[in-house]
C-alpha cells in the first residue's frame, strides 16, 4: 500500500531512471 504522493514520487524516480538510461545509451553510441 502506498499513499498517492508516494506513488507519484516512485513514478517520477522510475521515469527519471529510464530517461537517464536512454541518455547514457545514446551518448555511448
Molecular structure report:
The chain is an all-alpha fold. It is built from 1 helix and no strands. The protein has one helix at residues 4-27. It starts with a helix and ends with a helix.
Query: What does the radius of gyration come to?
Result: 13 Å
CA-to-CA gap between the ends?
A: 40 Å
- What best-fitting shape do the alpha-carbon axes yield? rod-shaped
Structure classification: mainly alpha
The count of helical stretches stands at 1
Poorly predicted tracts of residues:
none
Order of helices and strands: H
Strand content: under 5%
Chain-averaged pLDDT:
90
The main β sheet shows up as: none
How much helix is in the residues?
over 70%
State the total count of DSSP E strands: 0
Short account of what is shown:
The chain is mostly helical and 29 residues long. Helix content is 83%, strand content 0%.
Question: Can you lay out the helices and strands and say which pair or pack?
Answer:
Layout: H1 4-27
